[in-house]
Amino acid sequence: MRFPWPPDTISRIAVGIAALVVLCLMGLDYAFGLVPNPVRVEIDRRQAVSQLLADQIALVATRLGPPDVHQFLYSARRNESKLLGMALRSAAGDAVSITGVTPPRVGANFRSTSTHVRVPVMLQGQPWGALELNWQPIAAEAFPDMLLTPQSLWPMLTFLLLTVLLRLYLGKVLHQLDPSAAVPERVSRAYNTLSESVIMLDGQGRIVLLNEAFRVLVGQRSVLVGRRLEEHDWLREGAELQDGSGYPWTLALQTNTACTRMPMKLRLGGDLHVTLVTCSPITERNKALGCLVVISDQTYIERSNESLRLTTSQLQSANDEIQQKNAELTRLATRDPMTDCLNRRAFFEIAGARKDQCNLVGQPVAAIMCDIDHFKSFNDRYGHAIGDEVIKAVAGLYNTAAEPVGLACRYGGEEFCLLLPGFDEAKAGVFAEMLRKRVQDTAGDGIDYEPRLSITSSFGVAVTRSPRLALEQLVDQADQALYQSKRAGRNRCTLFEQRQPETIGTDSTA
Known about the structure:
By secondary structure, this protein is of the alpha+beta class. The chain is 46% helix and 23% strand. The longest helix has 36 residues, at 299-334. It is elongated. Residues 506-510 have low confidence and may be disordered.
């Protein structure tokens, strides 16, 4: 059989049980010695051989002399292949006879080891000395030979054998207990053909069946059949539900009510999936027997919508910028750059249409021609820079006053023209007089020069109610009235009349 990696649940269970059994057997072996330990057996043999030699030496030493004792030690070493050397010492520690590799001299309290054994020699029941034997090291005590001893081999072999047997046995048993085994193969194949993720749950919310689309959605993450869906760590930690509500399938099982296309975000590793969950409970006699869960992955659609929203936003921004540029270009094309008043061409285009609209419904239209008095003297006396400031100051007053009710135009040089739709002679005269006083009283305040400049303007007013009178003719009439204001002494307003001009207001200050 082929073991899966990483190990599945059955393999992990088999490994755990096998390890537990081997640990129990090792405990019994340690307590009762069920398996012989070759190291312990060899040590016991060496101790027995050493004791036997010590007893024989005591007999030889009693009946024979020292040469015979030495010959006995030499013969014993030759007969024992693992014995490197021996030394017979007296009670005082002096060497009586030595053969082979001499064991290191030790104290009276020395305890024997596996390579150095010390056995007391008794003569007539009294301690006479000691026999010390130097043995070869036991191979099974060192790595890696110790791994080949029965003491080490049997736990490893037992563990491997139990793991294989338990994996086979548990695989068969749990397969029979697998809830998905109750689902016919043809049903599983039918579900696998669906592009959406499908999970079948039983009445307790445990997974009975899931199709390949769901496995593809969750990637390499494990999905355990027979376990509740929300008990999987990757789902419990990665699911983001709308309004903090419970899992849709849990609600469907509890209420026996279907839920349709409930949004749920599922974070799997670094990927965020936007899904819609539809749950249909399977009921019998108002009791939930299971639930069919369908998860539709909307990530691609959501990303496309987000891209579309971003593109739309960018297009809107570009359109706003284009409109702003167009407005700026329109302003540059229709406005005088120094005064921000309409230029002459734009004024006649816009003002002509407004005049015609008013005259068609019988409303009057007034035109006011304005001129700065003695403007050439400002340029000659103070320079053109101050002259430009005078024009800007006067134009600002005209623009501010005309913006709510009509149009203001820089007609040429220091001349300006205003169109006032709906103004008759009386209202236009009052308006012109208001402008005259405002220029006289406040225009010089906006210019940084000492002493304060005295600025005045002259005005000519013309009014018409006839659509037959062209705008150019109306402006010409206002210009004629302006000429009359200048001839009358400037800084005044004059209303145009066909036969005789009439002075609206007079101020001797010029």
